[in-house]
Amino acid sequence: MKNVNYAKDEILIPSEAANQSEIAKPREVKAKNFSDKKLAKNHNIKEIANRFRSIRKIFCYSQEEIGNIIGVSYQQVQKYEAATDRIPAVSLYQLAKSLEISVNEFFPDSSKNLVNDAIDNEVWTMARKLMTLKNPNIRKKITSLVSSLQE
């Protein structure tokens, strides 16, 4: 039986192999697999995904509505929220701009953000009801009314 060196592996030439079981199979080379599990283990990705989901819920948007804002399907939004896919920075920027919030809201190290604020139930309820209003002009008027009460 004749052995041939090919890429540092010995391969038996099939025509000269006495038994088909002697034929060496090519070695499988496994590429680095950035699987869903490995992505989910990354704490920062999970934290950003959790904040992404929390902000979506604060503003009472569905996954489909968020997908429309950032230009992806609702299935992709599900993957972002589950931390199985990384959220592109441009998507965070588009969403922050659309919601009129700082992009820092998505990151754990910001000193003050929506997710960590201790907001009581009344404020959460009011915010949810405000975001269910279909007319953006009415939302803006109510928001400016509340802002004027602070001054």
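The above is record 1. Record 2 follows with the same two-line structure.
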Amino acid sequence: MALTGTPERFDVRARNREESVLVLLRLPLGVAVELARTTTSTLIAVFPSPMTGLPAGTATAVMRRATAFIEDHPERPLTVGDIAAAAGVGIRALQTAFRRDLRITPTTYLRRVRLDRVHQELLAGGPGVTVRETARRWGFTNLGRFAAEYRAAYGRSPGQTLRG
């Protein structure tokens, strides 16, 4: 596009059909700038952005639905797709919301919730409670990795927690 005219007035001439979609003719510069700002902010507010994945103002509701679903069903073999469906968004939008709001992924959040549930069960103890069975019931199949995560989160081994 070619801009011609004085700083207060300009003409936009389309060089081809694609450029002719929006042609501003002889608008005062201030009006054209305000029109561009208003149009841009309206588009951002109304349509999902490929950068955020969510319309403006919905991130909190999405995160509320997603975290509630995870906390209500951590014992299930959940996938990111399951969590996204429960939150009413796509996978990318869910991942973006978690990264933006919590600085972690949805699966990391799920692992933390599960780790907390294991911790609560080990604290409660009781007859027949074992670290291995408790960890496996909450989805931790690699016991070495589980023990390392547990120690990093709680500063002690799962066995120490179980023994009190």
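Residues 5-11, 16-25, 48-54 have pLDDT under 50 and may be disordered.
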